[in-house]
Write a structure and sequence with these properties.
Jelly Rolls
Length: 202
Amino acid sequence: MGRRAGTCHVGRVMRRLGPSDYRDMPWKNGGGVTRELLKLPHPSEPARFLARLSIASVAASGPFSVFPGIERTILVLEGAGMALSLGGAPEVVLDPRSPPFVFPGEAETHCRLLAGPVRDFNLMVERALAEATLEVVHLAPGGTRAVAGTGSLVLHGVAGRAELSGTPLAQEETLWLEAPGSRVLRSDEGATVISIHLTRRG
């Protein structure tokens, strides 16, 4: 998966990815471009995925692509924000201060930009096979946060520099761990990190 990929531990897997490992891909509906950070494969259907993390640059208002069976989580990183309308329901306004917003990928979703382009973080998960939680972790200088899990843990550096039990995580880098166990996320200078815990069903 690129020059940074692949450190194996006893019974565990860790991958550290950076911008050279990411892929720029057109939206499914052709309306924009997404930078794919990480894609975990579907266990039986090569054309689908188990989970996918990406950052999209949204330059104009318009419809979102439709992803049947996918649970989506979106988080605005930069820009004034956007308003999402799902299937004719009242708009949901999102900006960089908003919590992560979860919605079904099969819903007809329209995006209205509030004042210019935005960048947003996207998490997509095959609903029938897995569930995921996304949290934005703000670490003050010298701050720490315990992270643990038996499934998959993905961390993405948004700002500053952090480390996970000695493994560095810089801005725009991504760490992916399987069966991470108990670990400590810390930062000497302060950092903002997106933390995702993925659990497979069954």
